[in-house]
Specification:
There is one protein chain. With about 240 residues, the chain is an alpha/beta fold. The chain contains 8 helices and 7 strands, in the order E-H-E-H-E-H-E-H-E-H-H-E-H-H-E. It has a 7-stranded parallel β-sheet, with helices on both faces.
Length: about 240
């Protein structure tokens, strides 16, 4: 079990799903954990877990910079950034509106740019930092009805490689994780028929859990992964093998 007692971990989109599981896991490992949310959060729950929270739209550069400045002013540093915030607005290409395209790109890709740029300034001065970007197998293999989402997540993979090359000399590791089908509140709404079709495509014959992804995040955020940067780890039960 990795020890993060002296670390401050900032997780975007941490109010539910994978982000929530990541936040809980870091908190259990002793880290000071801060999650961001855009619309609503269960404050009582997160307070009970001793997890702090900031309202922030990651697509808004000003909102991001104000939040990062406030965190650094209070805590002096941010050791780990997990770019998890993401949205979907699925639809076939020929029916997709420009608004739905831009909304997904703004949150999923521009949000990663805004957060990483703001947070790594401080990491550079301290010559230490870990950034973990949550992408998706949709960004690796594409997914019908998700041209916007797949493009945004593929962009995160390219961003991860380029940023890792720029910041490696400053002892900042930047990696990505591409989850497959992970059970969350969102997937709970799918019909049994749809779930079974997904399950049939998974060689391990089970869906992933939030803790499956959190474990990989914590490894990449630990000093055990100190010689790993610019990589995308696919955690999907074997759907993508290449």
């Amino acid at each position: 079990m990795h020890d993060f007692k002296e670390k401050l971990v900032l997780i975007t989109g941490g109010s539910r799903g994978i982000g929530k599981a990541i936040a809980e896991s870091f908190a259990e490992s002793g880290a000071t954990v801060i999650v961001t949310y855009k619309n609503a959060i269960d404050e009582e729950y997160f307070n009970s877990k001793n997890i702090k929270h900031y309202k922030c739209d990651v697509a808004d550069e000003k909102s991001v910079q104000e939040m990062v400045d406030a965190i650094v002013k209070e805590h002096t540093k941010i050791d780990v950034l997990v770019n998890n915030a993401g949205i979907t607005k699925d639809g076939l290409l020929m029916r997709m509106s420009v608004e739905d395209w831009e909304a997904v790109i703004d949150t999923n890709l521009k949000g990663v740019f805004n957060m990483t740029k703001a947070v790594t300034r401080g990491m550079m001065s301290k010559r230490y930092g870990k950034v973990v970007n949550i992408t998706s197998i949709s960004g690796v293999m594409g997914n019908p009805g998700q041209t916007n989402y797949s493009a945004s997540k593929a962009g995160v993979i390219g961003f991860t490689k380029a940023a890792a090359r720029e910041l490696a000399a400053r002892n900042i590791n930047i990696n990505a994780i591409a989850p497959g089908f992970i059970e969350t509140e969102m997937t709970d709404k799918l019909t049994d028929e749809v779930k079974q079709s997904y399950l049939n495509s998974i060689p391990m014959k089970r869906f992933g859990s939030g803790s499956d992804i959190a474990n990989v995040v914590k490894f990449l955020a630990s000093d055990d992964a100190g010689y790993i940067t610019g990589q995308t780890i696919i955690a999907d039960g074997g759907i993508v093998m290449s």
